[in-house]
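Blinded run. Sample ID left blank on purpose so nobody reads anything into the name before looking at the predicted structure. Input follows.
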Amino acid sequence: MFTPDIVLTATINGLMTGAVYALIALGLTLVYGVLHIINFAHGATLTAAMFGVLVLNQALGIDPYLAILVLTPLFFALGYAVQRLVIGPASHGEDVNILLVTLGLAIIIENALLAIFRSDTRSVDTPYGFSVIEVGNLFLSTPRVIAFFGSIAVAVALWLVLARTDTGKAIRAVAKEKTGAALVGIDVRHVYAVTFGLGAACVAIAACLLMPTFYVNPRVGGAFVLVAFTIVVLGGMGSIAGALVGGLFIGVVESLSGLYLGESLGQIGIFLIFILVLLFRPTGLFGAKA
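Blinded prediction complete.
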């Protein structure tokens, strides 16, 4: 049996990891909520952003957290351009075609990264990578604490954008009824591109928050996007609040499963929850019936 302090530490660490999972899932659920498709290139985009952090750090000496200022607008612009210039024209307005195009993009990105960086696993060396914050009897990883509050701040900022700005209102209108939105003058193609841009910006920020304590190789994004998809299903497809709550919950489940079952079996609990949600509440915690 583990002491209460160990269980509490594992729970808090799970919450901090889950916040980053939630940030990755936010981009995935946002794209689904507006376009009603799963973006298969989401994991590859995360991997590319993580390599972006690595390159900025090793070539220019830019700290991973400062890289947020560079990579967030860059990946927003890339996401916007890819959707507007590649995904939109290639899909011809068909949802099935969008799925195939994003799958093709994922394969292209992954293989391009493999060709450039090879299959080696790499990491960023920072002076605070192993530093901890002492809270009573608990020792919390400093980078994970930063990642937790950073992810929560981004989630709140994204909610404010969607709730309070004209662009956010346009995104919500297109998500609800794209034909009606077009009839009142909203540029649906522009909204689609902005949505993809926001999704890419979310994973860029997540990459910057992950890299001080994680590693990167050309296939690492796939593992994260599987967890993110579970979070999206748990929270409710298209729900921002669901992605945040689901991410925190999944992070705790993974941490406690790793504690009691061993690190290699830590994700068993995640996929058990995934199956149970599909069986008993397929709309998720915050999802609505179609």
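Unblinding after everyone has recorded impressions. The beta strands are 122-123, 132-135, 138-141, 215-216.
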